[in-house]
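Issue 218. Parser rejects a valid record. Input:
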Amino acid sequence: MKIVWELQTATVRDVYETLLRRRKIAYTTVMTMMNILEEKGYLKKRAGEKAHVYRPAQAKTQVIRAMVQDFVNRVFNGSARPLLVQLVRDRHLSEKDLAEIARQIEEAK
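Output the parser choked on:
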């Protein structure tokens, strides 16, 4: 998704070649993942001259929200608390991050 957001439109080959610069990956893996993202409604595709061209189907914030909710539901049975606890324990959250979370909690009340 990040690559498609960055490029705005992309073929499977575009995404594959971008990922290949970072790590070894199979073309079929990229194709499968992009098909799954399309099935879930995150990508839209249209026929191009030689290949399908994909574009984001939703705004980045909407997709991230849906993916995080799906992850929390699948891994933590719908509770975000264990995820936040794990992030705090692994020190993936800075003091600034924690302050922002506290501010967001206050705004949500």
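Fixed in the parser; the record now loads. The longest helix spans residues 60-76.
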